[in-house]
Amino acid sequence: MIIACDVDNVLNNLTESVLKVYNADHNDNLKIEDIKSYGIEEYVKPEFKKDFPSLFLDKRVWKGISVMPGCVKVLKKWHNNGHEIYFVTATNTENMHKKAKWLQRTFPFMDVRKNLICMQKKQMLSGNIDVLIDDYAGNVIGGDYFSILLSYPWNENFCTSRYSSYRCNDWNEINEALKTIEFATSF
Fold first, then answer.
1. What Rg, from alpha-carbon coordinates, does the chain have?
2. What are the CA-CA distances from residue 70 to residues 73, 106, 119, 149 (Å)?
3. Measuring CA to CA, which residue among 179, 108, 131, 134 is closest to residue 38?
4. In the chain, what is the greatest distance between 2 CA atoms, to the nearest angstrom?
5. What is the pLDDT of residue 184?
6. pLDDT grade, residue 186 (50/70/90)?
7. Helices 71-80 and 171-185 meet at what angle, rounded to 10?
8. Does the CA dihedral 113-13-149-96 come out positive or negative?
């Protein structure tokens, strides 16, 4: 199988790290549970909405990034079993270098420079991948691939059953969904 995996909030805790810096700088107490749609900036104090995107370039955010539990073990297993793994991110191009370095440190068993894709519209991968693992429901709609949606408050109302999609709460569940998809595609 060819597995495409989103990076932010799937392999790392980007939103958590951004909120930590935002809350410290702007005396707020915004939590992940408060973010009910994909646009985080809708939930910050009105006077900071305009400048909020600059936080994604803040060095403190990237120093606060941590690896999602279980993702390295699961992806290493699938990689070692001969499946192709690609990292697909819709990041600001200024962050690509930082993200590539983080990915290479985190996934040393892969050649990230050959497996990192930056694109806003992941449906463009249709016909080239078998599975997309993501946290943004918009990437599930219209894609010609199986999808695994990692559960977050911003996608909790999305009906995965309409889109050949599996909803998972963690990387153990993602591993099980991948097994199911592998079985379904082996016929």
1. 16
2. 5, 12, 25, 16
3. 134
4. 55
5. 83
6. confident
7. 30
8. negative
C-alpha 107/C-alpha 99 separation (Å) is 12
Evaluate if pTM is beyond 0.85: yes
- CB atoms under 10 Å from CB of 186, counted, come to 7
Dig out the tokens for 87 from the structure.
């990292």
Host H or E run for residue 77: helix 71-80
Q: Are strands 2-6 and 84-89 parallel, antiparallel or unpaired?
A: parallel
Euclidean distance between the first and the last CA atom of the chain, given in angstroms as a whole number: 13
- Tokens describing residue 175: 């591993």
User: d(Cα 100, Cα 106) in Å, to the nearest integer?
Assistant: 10
Report in angstroms the alpha-carbon separations of 62 from 69, 83, 98, 99: 17, 29, 8, 9
Sheet containing strand 84-89, edge to edge, reads 116-118, 84-89, 2-6, 131-134, 146-150, 165-168
Given a cut of 80, is residue 164 above it in pLDDT?
no
